[in-house]
## 1
Amino acid sequence: MVKRLAKMEKSSIITVRKALEWGRKNQQKSRKEPLSPEEILEMESLIAHKLGKERASLRIYPDEPISPQLWDEIQQDLDKLKKGIPLAYLIGKVEFMSLPFFVDSRVLIPRPETETLVESVLENLKPAYSLLDLGTGSGCIGLSIAHYLQGERILLTDISQEALEVAKKNALSLGLANQVEFRISNLFSSISKDERMDVITMNPPYIGEDEKSILPSSLFYEPWNALFAPEEGLYFYRKLAKEAPEYLEAGGFLALELTATRPLNRILSFFENGRFSKIEIKKDLAGKNRVLLAWKG
């Protein structure tokens, strides 16, 4: 193991204060630019998680000692964080729509931007709805909707059995296991056209191969099949515009997260096929086009 803080004498007691100091120095090492506020927040959040405490308590109780074994675990995880492994994977959880979701490397990490998709769906749903969540991953979209508005039928699908196991775990922890169904499916491959839904949701893979060189390194720890798509990232938009109406009830709608790196008119062109009566675009908090809602004609 790499020499630690030679930093800290072998006989010295490791306290929360010293752990924070070491964390900053370790994260700063081998780089010229200072740590960003977000990087400091992640470092402190990781230490707090390992200690089983709220982040604010680190400064309230800075002289609290840390056991040698736990200190070793903290250093190892801080090294992983420095290498780019996402914080959510290291602590095994992320907050989405004010709900706790378990995550690991089997699923994409839910992003705050995707909350705009959930909020847009909830604004347009009535109780006793039916919902199909494609490529569910952690289940954050479908389960959040189910939590805030009870439905008659909620079906979560994914091409990955491993991803579905994560979604099932989250359904159980959120008390929704008896309200949702799970199924292996590659888009609509396991869905009957008799199973028409009031709403179909998806945060599709939408990163093009040409964008790989500009992506942050931490993104490469996440499942590639949940990130990248053919046709410059537009494959799933084209596919869903063509196929989704067959699985929607009359007056039902499709809700998709949008990529911000491709012209919106290219995506909208797929939906100008006479099968949708109305299309709405919702912006996220940053003012970017984030959600497409398309009602079946």
## 2
Amino acid sequence: IGALLLGARRAVALDIDPLAAEATRENARANAVTDRLRVVCGDLRSLRGAYPLVVANILYQVLLGLAPELGRRVAPGGTLILSGLLTSEAASAARVYGAQGLEPVREETEGEWAALVLRRPG
């Protein structure tokens, strides 16, 4: 929803939790972006193809386990933003996603939290 509010033409939101997916739908209505957002309740296998921008706000251990599948969802020249990381986990996450062909661009921190921005060459 944030990407749509910042100018993205359309977006897909994915969550395995039905309550979270419904909350996303409600948030989309509140922000008047329902016509540009598709909400999917499922896992990464519920989606096809690769995307120019992928954002994942999940805990570190989950991000590590999802690295191969999540990495495949980033199109050539695309960007992956990982958040939900502690600052002490960021370097390790960057290495794991680097093994998926994604290059670190920058790290943002706020207190003990970190977000990584990675890019797939191409």
## 3
Amino acid sequence: MYFDGVERSNGAGAGVLFISSKKDLLQYSFVLTQNCSNNEAEYQAILLSLGMAVEMKLPQLEIYGDSALVIKQLTGEFEVKKLELMPFRRYVGDLLAQILETSLHYVPESKNGPAEALAGITASLAYFDEWLNRVQSCQRWVTPPLAEEEAEEE
């Protein structure tokens, strides 16, 4: 599974690409409606993809992303220092624990092209709210508000 999150001045998006063992492709793109940093967009992308993987009951998942920071924070190589990223890290950890076997890999942007393209397209579309509301949506995936979840834990 490849993921990417993109933040632009006019919007943010997430792209996810699942590749089955038979080389079947499942491509998803998401408009992120909250203003966020690029790192938050990357975390949103992996949260959305892991949520789908859990819902699909995948027993194993190889995960590829082009954000060295996010991948290294998830593997424990880097410490999460920014407070706003801590809830994301915790929630991703909870989702990873629901999949029997996972591996996380950093890939350069050049190897993450399809996921990046999906994220970039939806980030650009976020600017056109009126048009976007006319686009038919088959299913909506929603991540819970992380700030509210954190407040409940305290």
